Sequence to fold (460 residues):
Amino acid sequence: MNLSLEKTMMPLLDIEQRQSSFCEVAIGYSLEDAVLEANRCLECKHKPCVEACPVHIDIPKFIHEIKEKNYEEAYQVILNDSMLPAVCGRVCPQESQCEKTCVRGIKGESVAIGRLERFVADYHYDNHPSGCEFEIKENHHKIAIVGSGPAGLSCACQLLKLGYDITIFEALHTPGGVLVYGIPEFRLPKAIVQKEIDQLLDHGVKLKTNTVIGKTLYLEDLFNDGYEAVFIGTGAGLPQFLNIPGETLNGVYSANEFLTRVNLMKAYDKSYHTPIYKGQTVSVVGGGNVAMDAARAALRLGAKKVHIIYRRSMEELPARKEEIEHAIEENIDFNILTNPVEILGDEKGFVKSMKCLKMKLGEPDASGRRRPIPIKDSLFEMTTDVVIIAVGTTPNPMISQTASDLKTNEKGCIITKDESGLTTKAYVYAGGDAVTGAATVIEAMGAGKKSALAIHELLS
Ligand code: FAD
Ligand code: SF4
Fold:
């Protein structure tokens, strides 16, 4: 038993190396680190961490296998409930899920469940590159999945194991959703995402890319083609803006567009000639993971100064703690309690500065966070040549506008009738960000898994 009150440290890339490189920042545990950390786990009988995991991975069981140095067995335990352990081990907000309830966290730090999950997945890919095996008894029922993000992939995996004939329809040319177009290489290498997706494709899941449901094909076409049920996991990719003057100037991006150019269109790789307006001073408006990713990507593209502009205080920043810490280490400048009111341009229509108000915090609002209130006479102007807006996204209305009976709420999220994700249209289920609005990878995976089990119950 390791009685240390602190997690085993995660080795990190040097700060200097991070300034210009998109290499992964968190390097990963060695075998020794993993066994040391696994020995902090008490293997609690009541398993609070399992209950708090949206896909209910048997956490003490896989950690036990690490203690015994049975790393491949540990991988198989995780695989029973999650097909994306290398992804989740890297990007899941464990601190607000499994690790939040960990008994070791009562006195000291919780067990580093996420880091151990990542270790197990990386060990598997390094040592068993031919992939994993699971038994499939084909039942020849055809199911269509729309969207290849975590929700769609998790639904596909669960249905595949139950023997269904699965086709995923994806609008983009590459599968993975936000995992490939949103989260940058330095947090989640794309080769890792591809490895986890390949496991599904190798087991017979079909993938049709460049197919936009609601445009290339309608939802009804899928039923006419013999699909017996459809799962919609189309995410929330429609960016919101601030609705302030100057947002149409050259040099203003939505974070989605900026990160898509960096990640999916590979602007980070000099051998690709992806057009991207980089700028010397970049201001990112927002305080979530998306804002941190955009700021840290801008820094790596060569910006001299990168500002985060956030209207509440450091305590309210919604981004993962680890991402905020890494951003601070990398010299990202946090302009908190600051709210932009206008973006100003030069005579050629390019951004030159931004007017902002200073804010103070009032009483908590509906979100439970303290409401930002403008401070009188606090208007000031800051020089900037790029502004990236990262203040949230909503679901794209393409499917709901073209499918009869599929109802959405006032935010454009697909309405589901119950936990299974059944929509207002018969035989159509939905889950992930398309239902909840922007949320997390593991929540989207949990929703995909629940819908898969409900579809199985319906068809059997
Ligand atoms: P998505 O991942 O958005 O996938 C939807 C897929 O559907 C996309 O591939 C899209 O192209 C496709 N699609 C859309 N419309 C159609 C259509 N009409 N026809 C066919 N295909 C369609 N979460 C975390 O847990 N941790 C993090 O660190 C984290 N960081 C993030 C950083 C960024 C920059 C962003 C944008 C999000 C981040 N998130 C993070 C949130 C997380 O990525 C999402 O909650 C999760 O990806 C949602 O999964 P999803 O499957 O519902 O949707
Ligand atoms: Fe181990 Fe923490 Fe889960 Fe207990 S709650 S089994 S200590 S990871």
In short: The mean pLDDT is 95.
